[in-house]
From TrEMBL:
One of the protein's GO biological processes: phospholipid biosynthetic process
Pfam families given in the database record: G3P_acyltransf (PF02660)
Protein name: Glycerol-3-phosphate acyltransferase
Source taxonomy: Bacteria, Pseudomonadati, Campylobacterota, Epsilonproteobacteria, Campylobacterales
InterPro entries per record: G3P_acylTferase_PlsY (IPR003811)
EC number: 2.3.1.275
Transmembrane segments: 12-32, 64-86, 92-112, 124-143, 155-186
Source species of the chain: Sulfuricurvum kujiense (strain ATCC BAA-921 / DSM 16994 / JCM 11577 / YK-1)
Class of this enzyme: transferase
Function (record text): Catalyzes the transfer of an acyl group from acyl-phosphate (acyl-PO(4)) to glycerol-3-phosphate (G3P) to form lysophosphatidic acid (LPA). This enzyme utilizes acyl-phosphate as fatty acyl donor, but not acyl-CoA or acyl-ACP.
Length: 204
């Protein structure tokens, strides 16, 4: 058990456990009295919180959706910033970032179910790759405003981040970026299926 006293290992565990906190589920249950894993897309993310709570309380839905988005991003930001503060190696920082996203998508508190990982993914990327993240957020915002399909907008933003990271940092080891992108893509497969069938709902 001596490995548990290793700083890197402690950060890896913290990243996974912190990333796994299902803020959307908690906020919707506490403040709206609904279980979002049993309604809408059954996701614990901000979009489903907004969609489900909006059915009964539109004004509260916006607040809870915004809070979920912020908290899901912050849990990624905080753990990676802490890794930087304690001067972990670049590779260790990237593993912390990956594990925060894995925790959100496969939460230990939800029997390894979880959210789609977009907010947490953008949170860790905002620290590790700030410029590509800004580019991704711009693409996401434009797509969200015009297309109004959350999943498609998120994937377009993700694609912009990956492409811009290769262009801006060609010498960088991109495996962690691609791994996070793969997880987010994998978690969005049900959305793609609904999109092909014309069943994916637009955000009002």
């Amino acid at each position: 058990m001596d490995f548990l006293f290793n700083l890197n290992v402690q950060f890896y565990l913290a990243a996974y456990l912190l990333g796994g906190i299902p803020f959307g589920l908690i906020l919707a249950k506490v403040f709206a009295g609904v279980n979002i894993t049993e309604a809408g897309s059954q996701s614990i993310g901000a979009t489903n919180v907004l969609r489900v709570v909006k059915e009964t309380n539109p004004s509260l839905a916006k607040k809870l959706g915004a809070a979920t988005l912020a908290l899901d991003a912050l849990k990624g930001i905080i753990v990676v910033l802490a890794a930087k503060y304690f001067e972990l190696s670049d590779s260790a920082q990237w593993l912390v970032a990956v594990l925060a996203v894995v925790g959100h998508c496969f939460s230990p508190y939800m029997w390894f179910e979880g959210g789609k990982g977009v907010a947490t993914g953008m949170g860790v990327m905002a620290v590790m790759l700030p410029v590509p993240t800004v580019i991704a957020l711009v693409v996401w915002a434009v797509a969200a405003k015009t297309i109004r399909i959350s999943s498609l907008s998120s994937m377009l933003g993700l694609a912009a981040l990956v492409v811009s990271s290769f262009i801006l940092y060609p010498a960088m080891f991109h495996a962690p970026v691609l791994f996070i992108a793969f997880i987010l893509f994998y978690k969005h497969i049900p959305n793609f299926v609904r999109l092909v069938k014309g069943e994916e709902k637009r955000v009002a």
